Amino acid sequence: MLELRHVSKSFNQKSILQNISFKIKKGETICLLGVSGSGKSTILKMIAGLEIPDGGQILFNNIDLTSTPPHLRDFGLVFQDFNLFPHLNVFDNIAFGLKMRKINDNQIQLRVAALLEQVNLSGFEKRNISELSGGEQQRVALARALAPQPRLLMFDEPLGALDKSLKDDLLNEIRSILHNENIPAIYVTHDAEEAFAIADRILILQDGVIIRDDTPEEIWKNPKYVEVAKILGIGNVVEGEVIAKNKIKTEFGIFDIDCKKNKGEKVNLLITQSSKSKDEMINIKVEDIVYKQNQFEVKSRGAKFLVKEKTKIGQTIKVTVQVQCLE
Amino acid sequence: MMNKQVTLDAKNIPVNIRLFLWLPAFLFLLSFFFYPLTKIFSLTFDFSTLTNENNLLITRNSLLFTFYQATLSTILTFILGIPSAILFSKYDFCGKSFLRAITAVPFMLPTVVVAAAFNSLLGSRGLIPLLSSFFFPQLPITNYQFTGTLTAILIAHVFYNTTIVIRIVGNALSQLDSRLENSARVLGADSFSTWRYVTFPLLRPALLASALLVFMFNFTSFGVILLLGGSNFATLEVEIYIRALQLPNLNLAAMLAIIQLFFTLIFSILYTRTINQVNTQTNPQFSQTQKPKTFKQKIFVTTLCFLLSAFFILPLISLPIRSLTRLEADRGQRDEIQYGFTTDYYQELFINRRNSLFYVPPFQAAINSLSYAGMTVLFSLALGYPVAIALAKPTQLDKFLDPLLLLPLGSSAVMLGLGFILSFGRLISSPLFVPIAHTLIALPFVIRTLQPAIKSIPDKLRQAASTLGASPFKVWRTIDFLILSRATLTAATFAFTISLGEFGATLLINRPEYPTIPIAIQRFLSQPGGLNYGQAMAMATLLMILTTTSILLIEKIRLNQSGEF
After folding, report:
1. Does B140 lie in the same domain as B10?
2. Residues B220 and B353 occupy one common structural domain
3. What letter does residue B191 receive in the DSSP assignment?
4. Is A100 on the interface with B (CB under 8 A)?
5. CA–CA gap between residue A323 and residue A319 (Å, rounded)
6. Which of residues 145-184 of A touch B (CB under 8 A)?
7. Whether the predicted interface score ipTM is above 0.90
8. Residue A189's closest CA among A40, A17, A25?
9. Domain A2-223: CATH architecture, name and number where available
10. B131-178 confidence digits (pLDDT tens)
């Protein structure tokens, strides 16, 4: 359905996005994951038509939309800070897109009522925006975007301004709505947890380039890049040096692993804890301990491990780990 | 000093002392505002006044003309003001803050200065007509007229009020979240619908509020209309003046004053309502200014910058230039005109040419003005301080009494003058009445300046100082005195500046032998000859310098204050 081909964009001679290409299938939810400033929102703005790409094409069902104005694209966009119209009440906010499409009043009434029920806000029609809580505002924003039945739905950090418990509730709601409506969706976030919860496919953006495009399982299994491992917050990224074939020396000892590098080269390893006995065993010296949910988080040389037994600072303990090469 | 401490602990002031604090200002208002007001009322609601056909005709005409010129002025102000508001709220360009400051200057200048400034630029003795006839003598400039035309009035009104539109609408524009427009676009609104259903409704309160304020100022404008238009342009204000002094018909003047008061009251109420909506609208902290990028934007920014600079700087520069250049004969001689630089106009200010008893040399007018201003400062501080102390931590009583103080602001200066004439008759020849009228106008400003300062004196700071071992006097000197002296200086400067430039009320009540600077300027402008004109220019220049210095002083004290708290 949606396809981006070699899209690029720069502001004031500074390149923001380079050669962005991806496709979204019907009913698929993809997630653009990246730290702030990685260019995620700019991609959405270009798809929405609020920014024009410097190069490349944006297509929907193989029709080039690159220079189509936003109001003719039929896409929905939900912003982080809701962006509800402060001068309109809940009903008129949700009805806005329908009115712009000159849909008759009876149908608008029905559609708005159905949407309010869908986002659990039945009876809120006459409320003013300023009377709503953050979560309620975001629900109205969601309903507003869904109202005109867009061909594609985009979310720009939609839960960024909400607190944790609200976030989880709304995330579930969004997921079930997307599932029911079967609309292709792009979800932008810097929060890996959200991305894994909602996405069929995750695209990881780093400095304006997509460095990973895969299913959540694959990315979790094999992050492949240092940046990906860091964004996902999996395991410990540790520097090492190839001292012989299949031998890499790190601060945590020497590991037998082939990173396809020559002797003397530096490599990054991902060290994750594992419970399988056939994995590597390392000794670490405890530098700091924090009690965390029935376990102890032990820090040593910038890396973190979880252990069952209480330890003391200065003590040396054994941990089973899995080691992967990163690029 | 202990005594002072007690009065300043505003929280604990008992009601009887609170009443006592209000007493001086209240008595003052009672005798010099409300009593004259009742006089005006009683004259108006006289059966013969209300039924006199001639009176009604004059009233209708002046009312219609007032609405007509105020509407035209407001429309023109918006034609310049809206693009300027967009310019300042959306774009970054070189010299932006300077240009913004320049557009705000006229608002604070006395009407005589503005009138003289436009006269010096465009009037028939002004720089542009004289210079063009000097350099291009073959140009057929016959019947050139600027002063005495509606155009002159309208231009001066635009000059005065554009800053209001820039401020109110510009603020609303810069607080407008562009993402709301983006949302609308994505939801299927084309650019016109976005403007129609999102941008315009969000700006409407600001547009309405600024339109009301501009209209109100144009409606009550007096000095500009009299000085640039002349008494042919009979607005309500001018008509009141004419009926009070030139063709006396005090009943008619009183009736016009009541009508005027009625409309100003309505406009103020409407304005207060709409401006409240402006404040509560969108979330602030949204600045999205950018350098002009496209060709269209560059053209827009450059043209408007050029236009605004010319419009706001030229009159203010031409006034001092014209006061220092001789471009025509001093007394209508045909030959031997010396063109060029001259300080004669300034030197003449000190000479009583006519040796006439009623002729007052301009130098004397300056002394009058300064002593009136000094008295205004004393009166308004003496009356304002107790009220400001009571208002620092207001009770219900204070909140009830507070709006009374603002009433004199709502009524026009000419009306204040008329009230004095009606109430005090012959007594008015006492030179005290001019500073009393000025005090009525200055008092609200003085109280508004003092009150936040007194409120800001932190009790905790004072307690901390005394626990550190400071004596009560030392506490007062190191904390209260510092804060209060600044506020007092600001308030005094306000009162001083207001008195110095006041024209309307002074024109009605001043004695011919004690003219103020604005009155002297008006007299010189109405007399023939290049020398008189030059002297008017010279005096207006001096007044402009004095006023601008005072404004700068106020701004500087304010900046320092905000930096510290």
Report:
1. no
2. no
3. H
4. yes
5. 12
6. 145, 148
7. no
8. A40
9. 3-Layer(aba) Sandwich (3.40)
10. 777 777 776 666 678 888 999 999 999 999 999 999 999 988 888 888
What's the pLDDT tens digit per position in B329-349? 655 555 555 667 777 787 777
For residues B243 and B352, membership in a common domain is answered with: no
Say whether both B428 and B564 belong to one domain: yes
Determine the Cα–Cα distance for residues B504 and B416; give it in Å rounded to an integer.
Answer: 9
Which structural domain, as residue segments, surrounds residue B23?
Answer: 1-45+343-565
Q: Where are the domains of chain A?
A: 2-223, 235-326
Whether B23 and B77 share a structural domain: no
- Cα separation values, B348 from B125, B334, B386, B538, Å: 19, 21, 44, 10
Number of domains forming the structure of chain B: 2
- Per-10-residue mean pLDDT, chain A, length 327: 91 87 91 86 91 91 90 90 89 94 93 92 91 90 92 89 81 86 90 88 90 88 82 81 83 82 83 76 82 80 80 82 83
Are B355 and B472 in a shared domain? yes
Residues in chain B: 565
Nearest of A222, A324, A322 to residue A282 by alpha carbon:
A322
**Same domain as B518, residue B373:** yes
Using the Cβ of B92 and the Cβ atoms of chain A, whether some distance falls under 8 Å is answered with no
Residues of chain B contacting A85 with CB distance shorter than 8 Å? 180, 183-184, 198
Minimal Cβ distance to A48: which of B186, B189, B281: B186
B423 membership: H or E segment, kind and range: helix B413-424
Between β-strands A280-285 and A247-250, what pairing exists: parallel, antiparallel or unpaired? unpaired
For residue B372, give the nearest of B245, B514, B548 by alpha carbon: B514
> Is position B499 within any domain?
yes
Contact A69 B190 (CB under 8 A): yes
